[in-house]
Task: structure prediction
Amino acid sequence: MHQWTACGFARSARMARHAAFAGLLFAGTIVAHAQTSTPVGIWQTVDDHTGQPKALVQIVEDSDGTLSGKVVKGLGANDRPARRCTACTDARKDQPIVGMTIIDGMKKTADGWDGGHILDPENGKTYRCKMHVEDGGRKLVVRGYIGVPLLGRSQTWNRQLQ
Result:
């Protein structure tokens, strides 16, 4: 039978602390990876013409596993909180842009997310959409297109810390 000495007890306690610390580091690495390998989060969009920040879009995972995104804040110099989508032609016509869902139906694929749609509130048009994260999850490349991805344009959005 092993007798516990003060030295042995201290050594065991120290090993337990090291194991707990290593477990926390490992768990933190997994959480950090999960946060950066997915578009879920808040993203700063940019204006195609000026390159300036335009809005904050929050992307969430819906109950069916697809992703959707809504505008949570306008950032443009001329932005007004009550600004409406006057160019929209669907149910979003004349609705406030802040709070509006502009991305829907994004499904996970081998290359990122695809199969959804994105609305450009500036012109009211809806495009097919695909996206993928880059730069360790700090950037989101969003491509809106008509027909095939070759016929479209991409924007790079920046992840915002919450």
User: Anything to note?
Assistant: The helical segments are 6-36. The first helix runs from residue 6 to 36.
